What does this fold into?
Amino acid sequence: MKWLVLTVGKPALAYARAGRDEYLGRIARFTRIEQITVKASDPARESAELLAKSEGCFRVVLDERGQALTSRQLAAKVQDWHQSSRPVAVILGGADGHDPALTESAGFLWSLGPATLQHELALVVVLEQIYRAHTILAGHPYHRD
It folds into this structure.
């Protein structure tokens, strides 16, 4: 399985860069993962670039109207996505959200919950949850119920 994590803009906050780097390293023990950024602009242009970079992938788009998942539910989805043999692209928008064309292209809309998160913090949360899902599937003791 290969993951692409597509974001708008590079993390400017030190904690977000540190968290991103920490979890990318941890996830790499289980699977291939790459984080790709696109330049911040307007939502239509950002979405067009995110669509192009995720071509051929199963798209998981972060959206406030998406489905909130427990960590175990996410792990079950990761297992299903792994069996499809397609790369999975997790797409996080910029401060102004996504263009409708991007959300309509999603194979799955994922919500991190009802609160609005700053997009750099959301990136760290997404990476931690991907890591947690892989540890659950591997039977690693990181996750505790």
User: Anything to note?
Assistant: The mean pLDDT is 94. The beta strands are 2-8, 32-38, 58-68, 88-91, 108-111. Residues 119-138 form the longest helix (20 residues). The domain at 2-138 is CATH 3.40.1280.10 (Alpha/beta knot).
